[in-house]
């Protein structure tokens, strides 16, 4: 049975990020080391312990969504649908009545419509239950980016939503990959979307001591693997991939950007927020992805790390990489694009998968910016501060989430 699995390829990309509102500008931002972290403008954060974030800049859905849709959709759904439309357009795939049942959508989100939930809770408290919007529930539920994207694109195939915290976007891509491998669909629209830069979102993560509190210098707050790191920077946006079976892509003469070859997923079963000591769960996810893709550790050319800039994640992820790759870990470039984009929570796996495909396509590794103080515990090659040209064949993308969820995706240059 394993011999009959379909090969799966990437044919389209879409992105809305704190350093670019489409794939082209996001790619330029990654390669130039653009910093997307600034003081919060989405709400008055003057009373908050953390007053900065990685917001999507100059977001304007005009011309991309109908005005009525913009009023009735949460911000995370707008990000997800617009990125999905870009990915589909870039892929050249047409969804018609004849093929719609074979094209599905899976978009992950860790939180869903948090802004809607907060806003309508205030309406309930201040104006009473009769004034709560009838669109409250469909605006806030985490599956709505998937549902709205399916409606917008006309995709009637397998449809679901993943909510595994910060691993959600990667789980969504991995689950779509599995459906295609087993022939349950011909193409999938997949990735992650998130918009949790809200008073409650920021306050909640701050109270948990998960965020950086570098209010005097926000631009250097996201500093993965640096010894002076003190927490992550919350971000927002969406990253979407179009995956197809190789046969389907070849039949329509699609441009193939990369092949997805491995998916490993595990649970720490250890703690609600902290990773296992030594990153054992993350290491196992990486090993599973390598086995799934029939790759030896020596074949890995680059790892896009989860790299959150928290003391616990970065040290444990470094240990996980060493465990998964052995001595080859010290020869493998590792970078965290969260140094530029902040942490998009459930959307992070989506934009980081896009970054991996772009790295393979352009043969350039994005840097870890703000890296200036080496940490003896974090002793790998983190591609500090400047992009690096390198021919890439096999690339891994790590995503780890609250609840102990671990995901690793393996991509390869098309051969």
C-alpha end-to-end distance: 23 Å
> What share of the residues lie within helices?
25-40%
The top-level CATH class of the largest domain is: Alpha Beta
How does the helix and strand content classify structurally? alpha/beta
Amount of beta strand: 15-25%
Please, could you describe this protein's structure?
This protein has 415 residues and is of the alpha/beta class. It folds into 2 domains: 9-251, 3-Layer(aba) Sandwich (Peroxisomal Thiolase, Chain A, domain 1), CATH 3.40.47.10; 263-412, Thiolase/Chalcone synthase (Peroxisomal Thiolase, Chain A, domain 1, 3-Layer(aba) Sandwich). Helices cover 33% and strands 18% of the residues. Helix 3 packs across helix 6, helix 7 (168-181) packs across helix 13 and helix 10 crosses helix 11. It is globular and about 60 Å long. The model has no long low-confidence stretch (mean pLDDT 97).
């Amino acid at each position: 049975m394993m011999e009959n699995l379909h090969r799966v390829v990437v044919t389209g990309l879409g992105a809305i990020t704190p350093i670019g509102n489409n794939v082209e500008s996001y790619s330029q931002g990654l390669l130039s080391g653009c910093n997307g972290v600034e003081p919060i403008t989405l709400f008055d954060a003057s009373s908050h312990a953390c007053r900065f974030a990685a917001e999507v800049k100059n977001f304007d859905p005009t011309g991309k969504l109908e005005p009525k849709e913009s009023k009735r959709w949460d911000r995370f759904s707008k990000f997800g649908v617009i990125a999905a439309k870009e990915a589909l357009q870039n892929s050249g795939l047409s969804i018609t009545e004849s093929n719609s049942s074979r094209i599905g959508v899976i978009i992950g989100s860790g939180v869903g419509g948090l802004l809607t939930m907060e806003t309508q809770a205030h309406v309930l408290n201040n104006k009473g239950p009769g004034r709560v919007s009838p669109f409250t529930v469909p605006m806030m539920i985490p599956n709505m980016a998937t549902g709205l994207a399916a409606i917008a694109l006309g995709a009637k195939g397998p449809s679901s939503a993943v909510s595994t915290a910060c691993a959600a976007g990667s789980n969504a891509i991995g689950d779509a990959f599995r459906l295609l491998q087993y022939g349950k669909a011909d193409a999938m629209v997949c990735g992650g979307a998130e918009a949790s830069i809200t008073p409650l979102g920021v306050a909640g993560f701050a109270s948990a001591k998960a965020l950086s509190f570098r209010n005097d210098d926000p631009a250097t707050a996201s500093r993965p693997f640096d010894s002076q790191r003190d927490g992550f920077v919350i971000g927002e946006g969406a990253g979407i991939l179009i995956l197809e079976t190789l046969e389907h892509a070849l039949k329509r003469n699609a441009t193939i950007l990369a092949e997805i070859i491995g998916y490993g997923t595990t649970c720490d079963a250890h703690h609600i927020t902290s990773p296992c000591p030594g990153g054992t769960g993350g290491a196992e996810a990486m090993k599973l992805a390598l086995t799934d893709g029939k790759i030896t550790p020596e074949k890995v050319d680059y790892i896009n790390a989860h790299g959150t800039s928290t003391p616990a994640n970065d040290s444990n992820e470094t240990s996980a990489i060493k465990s998964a790759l052995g001595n080859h870990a010290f020869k493998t470039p590792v970078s965290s694009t969260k140094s530029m984009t902040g942490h998009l929570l459930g959307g992070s796996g989506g934009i980081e998968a896009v970054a991996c495909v772009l790295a393979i396509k352009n043969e350039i590794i994005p840097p870890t910016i703000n890296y200036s103080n080496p940490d003896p515990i974090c002793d790998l090659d983190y591609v500090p501060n400047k992009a690096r040209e390198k021919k890439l064949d096999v690339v891994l993308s790590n995503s780890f989430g609250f609840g102990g969820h671990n995901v690793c995706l393996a991509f390869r240059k098309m051969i």
